[in-house]
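Hey, can you fold this?
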Amino acid sequence: MQIYLPIAELPVNIFMILSMGGAVGFLSGMFGIGGGFLLTPLLIFTGITPAVAVATVTTQVVASSFSGVLTYWRRKSIDFPLAFVLLCGGIAGSAVGVWLFSLLQAVGQLDLTISIAYVSFLSLIGGLMLIESVRAMLRSRSGKPVSLRRPGQHNWVHGLPFKMRFRRSRLYVSVIPIAVLGITIGFLGAVLGIGGGFIMVPALIYLLRVPTNVVIGTSLVQILATMAVATVLHAVTNQSVDALLALILMVGGVIGAQFGARVGQHLRGEQLRALLALVVLSVGLRFAIDLVLEPVDLYSFSVLSGGGQ
């Protein structure tokens, strides 16, 4: 069953898009991630332009994050002051990211930049995750405990100035690394269409020692607000948000997440991280192959902003 996407300007199979959203939702429910860094490449592989894919996925991330925020808010597992500092940095990062996005689109280098960024980013993240998870599994098989730092231990981050007290997280730390983390996530979300939870959650736990019972809900608040800002900026600045595509992806994602959450409960943490690392590396490899293979159409025509003859 074909359906025409008005912003993407191409017909797609609605069941294929639903399946795609369901598959990413399944992985999101299994691994506890937003899934934007997987959904954006999949849309690009189906022929949707990177500009529309990135902007539309921010909308899908907003929807999935909102449902999670409601759940953690009812459990009182959100540190709102911490989320506010992350949000301030995230909004600034989103604004810079959308500006760079528009600039690259204007000069005709957006597609290449996104592809190279995804190859580098996914290869780095996937490689590090795979190494860490394999080491954890080897230690577990040998009967050795997985070495984790205790929450009470401090590192160089705790020696920075401009400290602020976060009562829910029982922290007294500098706002500098928190703001920088928010800026980074906001920037990546606007440029690459990723929520960034798979970066933010480990950073909050291991660098800032945020308790695990509040870190996910707090992260989701920042992702929700930052991606909402990015969605509005993309819609106003680039007119590249396809609402129909986003709606189909949301429906599939909600259904898939329910099944993924059930499967994830039966796997150990290191197994989940290893599987996720393999998925991330596979997507990065696909991008790398597309960069080196000769395209079907050697030449393409596009209208760049500026109105030159």
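Oh, and this one too while you're at it.
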Amino acid sequence: MTARHVEGAAAYVPETVDLGRLAGAVQGCRGCDLFQGTTQAVFGAGPAAATMMLVGEQPGDHEDRDGKPFVGPAGRVLDDALLAAEITREQVYLTNAVKHFKFTRAAGQKRRIHKTPSRTEVVACRPWLFAELGAVQPDVLVLLGATAAKALMGNDFRLSAHRGEVLRPPDPGVPDNDLQVVVSIHPSAVLRTPREGRDAAYDGLVADLRLAASLLV
């Protein structure tokens, strides 16, 4: 393991709250090996003064190619859920816990298949997420999926045990420990749910987003 991997992303994050500078700097990040074989790092997107930040796991194949978060099938589910929860895009900053696409390929196949980031990779990339939190300073943070939840709430955090609750981030590295946190499933989980349970999974996502929206009133 090289020194850069011990340091993670911290050595590459500039001391700034300018999202444009951060988005430019992330392209040079070598804090872990996930940059290898990807098209680009995918930074967050949305207004710098957003009152709500949504954090997913990592960019997928579509996001890696386009350079924007939540533009693939899961992103379309999220767009619908936000609309159903009466949350406007102007309120929301979208990002991921990990900025590079981790994938694998089946033998003889070209298609890139999502692979869950390791805890080491999540922790290595966390300085970028902390930088985004410091720059945007949202009032409400929505963590979508187990990887995002554990990135800020700790590795022992169980998402299913805390849905429907309003939480506070325990990590002392989080820029704002008064931040209100809501956890939910990742939109991709709706797509993976068998058809007979898909409506219930989607409705649960919408309910969690409505809880988050209620905190902004």
